[in-house]
Amino acid sequence: MRSMFGFTWRFEMTAPWRILSLPPIGEDIVWGLFAPLGDAAEVRFAATADRAGLHAALADAEIVIGDFTGRLRIDAAAVAAAPHLAFVQMPAVGTDSLDVAALTARDVPVANAAGFNRRGVAEWAVGAAFALCRNLAWGDRRMREGGWPQPELLALRPRELHAQRVGIVGFGAIGAESARLFEALGCEVSYWTRRPRPEASATYRDLDDLVASSDVLVLAVPLTDETRGLIGPDRLALLPDRALLVNVARGGIAPDDAVLAALDSGRLAGAALDVFDTEPLPDGHPLRSHDRVLLSPHAAGGSDLSQLNLVAMVRDNVSAAVRGETVRNVINGVDPQVKRR
Q1: Domains of the chain: residue spans and CATH
Q2: How big is the CA angle at 153 (ends 151 and 155), to the nearest 5 degrees?
Q3: Are 74 and 97 in contact, with CB atoms under 8 Å apart?
Q4: Dihedral sign (CA 219, 223, 229, 235)
Q5: φ/ψ (deg, to 5) at 243
Q6: DSSP class of residue 35?
Q7: 3-state DSSP call for residue 48?
Q8: Confidence of residue 14 (pLDDT cuts 50, 70, 90)
Q9: 3-class secondary-structure state, position 183
Q10: Any idea which residues carry the catalytic annotation?
Q11: C-alpha torsion sign, points 68, 70, 72, 78
């Protein structure tokens, strides 16, 4: 406070926003992202990557960049341990590592990085479908073992992707981009989502009808209480003979044991799985040795361009919160104007 010519001037320094960044994003990357904010933000990290470290770090955190692996899940107990929490930014599309209901009850906006990897994941889905149609992984394994499996490979009845009916479960950014790419290859594409898209060029079908009419079924729907087990044994039994499954969504939507049973029964001719019920996939899990499964370590969205898109979206949204601007991609209906607590 300062007095001059009978007037009193009051200067108040605004405290820096306290940003907590959780693993696995590297600390050097985070420092670089928010260095331009200068004194307006203070970046912090949990002292230990466990529940105790998380709760201690949340005690005075205002903005949190979440852990997309789910190891440091922000559950109801973590929300209760964060009295100043004003905004959560997920560096991912999925928000299943958060208790969104608990955050919403506290009026905390939750944002994801919707669309950052749409092209990368869609290309993986198409590439995986190609690989399944032509049994590329199977042939590669036999060749590496010293064989020349030409007759056996032809006996598996390789097929051309353009002639397959493709069904896509979920029609967000990834589902829509997948549909566009499959259509460009000449595939007949249908989709299911809770809210049909009148503008979509693909054909909308009820879920059971979609499953029953899909030679290639692509899962691209978020994991929620409603979608867990969505493609279970009963729906897998609806698939046409020799159908193929491509899962770029989340483990648990098509449970691993249900997929294994469909493979063993012959209902599924093959599956390309980027996600699993438990990650990492346990050693010795039957999927690891199944001959008609293409495995990937939850890396469908891991292209260079996708990662650049991700860090830019996280940087821009957190910086907007610090500057008092509206944040984007809020998924829980809370006011996108971030307010201090």
Answers
A1: 2-115+304-323 (3.40.50.720), 118-295 (3.40.50.720)
A2: 70
A3: yes
A4: negative
A5: -70, 160
A6: G
A7: coil
A8: confident
A9: helix
A10: 250, 279, 298
A11: positive
